[in-house]
Specification:
mainly beta; 1 helix; eleven-stranded mixed β-barrel; Lipocalin
Length: 183
């Protein structure tokens, strides 16, 4: 893929991963569980997007995850991955249909095979927005995502630090997976 997408060029395409692991609090069981999941993701390139003197190239993406033989995904998200070559910055804007949005970002070289994005609640720049229910019951305090690209694969390690009513201390909800190019 052309250099305009920087480190995001390796992510363009259709992806699947069967080795995901979601470690989260289960309200149904009243305890923390590690749940394996299948993930499908599409990332379609676009750009440039001109914003004054800023020129961004990006990926329009959709992702869904299923546990076991579930018919409906337990998690979906839509958003954009963006590359700003002038500042060597990667951004990820994501909306999750539980009433949460995240704008995470971080620095990366144009040829980086690994990069980390971060956001924090009420942070200037890279921030987390959420609805009233989540703010009262499971508020996202911090978010960190590390992506590593390979030949026909990419993987991620994701940590969302939550303030949850069920715990006295912040809780780390984690997800990781390796996806393989299928298209």
């Amino acid at each position: 893929m052309a250099d305009e997408w920087g480190p995001l060029g390796a992510l363009a395409g259709e992806w699947e991963g069967e080795g995901g692991l979601d470690t989260a609090f289960s309200h149904a069981e009243g305890k923390v569980l590690g749940s394996p999941y299948l993930e499908k993701c599409t990332m379609k390139p676009f750009g440039p997007v001109d914003n004054g003197s800023q020129h961004l190239y990006g990926l329009d993406y959709r992702s869904a995850m299923w546990r076991g033989d579930e018919e409906n995904p337990f998690h979906t998200e839509v958003g954009y991955w963006l590359w700003d070559a002038a500042t060597n910055e990667v951004l990820r804007a994501v909306a999750i249909p539980r009433g949460i949005t995240v704008l995470a970002g971080g620095g990366a070289a144009a040829d980086a095979r690994t990069f980390t994005l971060r956001a924090a609640k009420a942070e200037e720049g890279y921030t987390i927005g959420e609805g009233r229910y989540l703010a009262a019951n499971a508020s996202s305090l911090r978010y960190e995502l590390t992506v590593t690209t390979g030949d026909g694969t990419w993987s991620y390690e994701e940590v969302s630090t939550l303030r949850m009513n069920e715990f006295d201390e912040p809780f780390s909800h984690t997800d990781h997976n390796t996806l393989h190019r299928v298209g």
